[in-house]
Amino acid sequence: MSTAPLIRAIQERLREAQYHNIATPFQMAGVRFDFTAAMRGNEGRALDLILLFDTTTGDFGDREAARVRQRVEALSRALDVMGSRYVVTAILAGALLAETIEALAETCRVLQVEDIAIGADGRPADEAAMRQLEDQIRMLLPLQLPEAAAESQDGDGSVMEQLVRALPATQKALLDAVIVSSEHGEQAVTEAAGLAIGAPFESNEKADPS
Amino acid sequence: MTASILKELDITNFRSIRGHVHAPLDAKVVLIHGENGAGKTSLLSAIELALTGSVQSLYRADAGYAKHLLHRSAGKGSVLLKTSGAVGEQSFETRLDSTGATTFGKLEQRLAGFFSERAYLPQSLLGQLLQIYQDSGSDVDSPLAKFVGKLLGLDRLDALEAGLKPLVDIRNVRKVVHGWSSAEIEKTRIGHLLDSQRNARTAIVEILTAEINGLKAIAVQVAPNLPVGEDSLGALTTELENKVDAAALDNVLAHIRELGAIKREISLARESVEEAKVLPDAGSLAGAYQRWESGQGAQVSAMRARVEQLLPNVTLPSDLGRFPEEAFVQLRAEAKELSDRAVQARIDSTRRAAAESERDTALAQRGTIDAEVESASSDSGSLASALAELTSFIDSEICPACDRDFNEVGKGALSDHVHSKVRRLSGSAERLLALSRSRSEAQLSVERLEREIESLTTRILDPKVLADLDRRAAYLETAMAELEELAEAFRQGGKLRSEDVAARRALSEEQSRTAALLGARETLGSFARLVGAAEPGEGETFEAAVGRVELLLIAENRRLADRVAMRREGVNRIAAIRTALAQRAEIDARIDEDETARRRAEIALSLAQELRDEGIAVRDAVDRVRSAIIRREFNDRLNFLWGDLFVRLAPAEPFVPAFSIPPSGTRRLQPKLITEHRYGGEVGGTPGAMLSAGNLNTAALTLFIALHLAVPKELPWLILDDPVQSMDDVHIAHFAALLRTLSKEHGRQVLIAVHDRQLFEYLRLELSPAFTEDSLLTLELSRSRRRDTLCSHQRYFFKEETALMPAA
């Protein structure tokens, strides 16, 4: 059977996020369920059960809202019966009526993916398309914290280094003085700068005791 | 601290919780359920109170909230929180009574701040969060500024920027940099000094030039062979001080004086020559005198001889004209004297006779007094006083001296006798005193009279002498009479003789004058030779010759005087030049010195200016660096994270909230809250304008979580108080997924309170343990009006899922 490129792209992206395919059809509480595709998470997401529907070209009634709903509700009931803790997420690839989604949302988490430009290789055509795809299924993907600010935990090393780098590497007397004093606040900086700038006058006074 | 978890909580009579409640918290997710008013918020704020000592959300509502923390039915209460982690188990306790709360062992300030701002989201804050961040962007102490400062450690950059700010304005630089303004003032002062010194120098150089030019003009005249310049002043001085011209001038002056003498001589000689024309007739005068001589002369001479004989001690004038007069005076004086002497002699003689008789009288008085004195006893006074003393011893008729009875005498009482005797004796003593006074007076008279008599005796003339005096006086009278008769003859004789003498003297003077005139011409001739002029020629008058010579001398005098003056002026000019040179050297030295000082001040100022520029450059760099950091932090980190979280919860919302950082001026951080289109990047309005109420809530919630995640993980706790009040079902499902992600992938211990039963059940399912170490606790709070709050808890463990079977 031929799987739609969008479904493949979603699967591909989820696999990158440590989800794996579940062979379909599968049995739950003795009932056989057939889906275009099903996936399951790993570790902390081990209880995530993902069902994919191709509302444009799919089989098993994917193109009919009522049948999609029937199957999801049936699965949901089967999970209840089994006392399972699986959390079902339905990914609907393609256009769908808003009422359908609302109705589905009562039984499971619903994600809708549509209007993604898919390239010849079966992957999203460009970064924007990839981002669009990711945004639609983002809550299934791991949360990437931007590089932690821990490098500048006390503030200073790197910030001060950046500052030093931002300045021409000429005479550093004043810079060093004010950087050291910056730890003690604005007044200390002013005093240190005043001292450093006043240094030429000091030596002048020493040279000329009059 | 990072690995620490909240372990358990014991609450007694705190806010809406009545009685004691024990709540275990040691699970990765704690799900709290309760109806509204069951005490969910009380439970979560109990954690905040125990950890930080205060409840921020209550504080915002009422600063005096601490009094109301105790359950109103109870007298005291407490909150005890235990945590466990790398540092072991820790306890945080707060005791409550009606007056307030007392905290034991709260978190250090920094962690407490983190907890209140980043770990605990009270329900009341959620609605305000966006507004808080939107309104307070420009304040240094705003939550956002604090967030940024804490996040980036920009305190030091801020300190640098603020501390270096005074460098921008030169007025502040003067205040801040010690020595700057004094260096500037010094520079200006020296500048003025130099200007005035240069002016002074120019003036001196002008004077110098003028003096040297003047000196050159003089040197051409006086010392044409010497160069004139600042170096040849010594030689010039020597040459100018040469006395040759002065000596010549003296010489000429002497000549002029000499000529003057010659002129006087000549004029004298000429005058007398002219006088000689009225010479008296000497011959006739001599004849007249001779005639007088032979006529009255003998008579006059005899008279004169007689007068001279009469006045042997008087020198009389030889001039006959004056003789009679003088002789009269003398004769009259002599006559008066003689008559005075005679009169005096007669008076004296009369007086002596009178004085002698006076003396005799006085002598007789003295004799009488002496006789009386002799008759009086000399010691009657002392005897009287002795007897007077004795009277005090007399008390009967018995004499105290001889012991005889005075009655024997029969002349009254003894005391009366003695008293009368004393009186008698005293009276004679007084008499004696009066006598002695009279005697000394008499004695004085005698002595005075005797002295007078003696002096009169010596003065009194012999009668013969007196007769001579009278005779002589008679002679004098006669002589005076005769002289009077002859006075006219005397006068005439005197006149004639003097005329004769004058005529004869004039004659002899005339003779000597002619000789002088000749001599003068001779003198003039030789003088002219001496001064190098031609001798007076034949026929040349005295005036012409003298004038000629005089002109010559005057010309020479003038020439030499000019030269001498010129020399003097030259010397003066040299002195002036030397003074000017010295002044110039002095000013040059001062200018040199001041130039050095000014250069020094300039160098110091320019060095300081360079440093100031460096400081300003540092400040600019601070601005750039901070700007870059903030931009990066906001755009790359916070906005990224916020956007990611927001999209997770609202995948269908095309507008994503974000902070917009203005391109400049990061000191006063003014990020604005905006929305961006997710793909177009176009900027929309504020979230409040662009998002639905549900998504607005989502934006606030995700902002809180983004802020929590963006800062270093100091406390790994995320406590959310009923955050899903108005989220629709879709969002709730997504929110549950997010919580799971935070708990299971990012190690946050999540405490979440919900009031909705369905949501509670859903979350319990969604947050079920997914692997072996995973854990979930549910707490259910309930209460009624009559009983204490109940807290039932249930722990869920991981259970392998077996429900899903591949289809056979």
* Number of β-strand runs of chain A: 7
**Proportion of residues in β-strands of chain B:** 5-15%
Strand order across the largest sheet of chain A:
1-4-5-6-7
Question: Any idea what the radius of gyration of chain A is?
Answer: 31 Å
Distance between the termini of chain A: 102 Å
Helix content of chain B: 55-70%
CATH class of the domain at 5-132 and 712-796 in chain B: Alpha Beta
Largest sheet of chain B, in brief, is: 6 strands, mixed
Major β-sheet strand ordering of chain B: 7-10-11-3-12-13
Oligomer: heterodimer
Largest sheet of chain A: 5 strands, mixed
Shape of chain B: elongated
CATH topology of the domain at 5-132 and 712-796 in chain B: Rossmann fold
CATH superfamily label of the domain at 5-132 and 712-796 in chain B = P-loop containing nucleotide triphosphate hydrolases
Instruction: Tell me the domain tally of chain A.
Output: 2
Q: What fraction strand of chain A?
A: 15-25%
Report mean pLDDT of chain A, rounded to a whole number: 80
Describe this structure in words.
The complex is a heterodimer of chains A (210) and B (808). Chain A is an alpha/beta fold. Chain A has helices at 5-16, 65-82, 98-105, 127-136, 157-165, 173-181, 186-207, and strands at residues 20-22, 26-28, 31-33, 37-40, 48-54, 87-93, 109-113. Chain A has 2 domains: 5-140, Trna Endonuclease, Chain: A, domain 1 (3-Layer(aba) Sandwich); 150-199, no CATH class. Chain A contains 7 helices and 7 strands; from the N terminus they run αβββββαβαβαααα. A 5-stranded mixed sheet of chain A has the order 1-4-5-6-7, sandwiched between helices. Chain A is elongated, with a radius of gyration of 31 Å. Chain B is α/β, with parallel strands linked by helices and 808 residues long. Chain B has a 6-stranded mixed sheet, with helices on both faces. The longest helix of chain B has 108 residues, at 542-649.
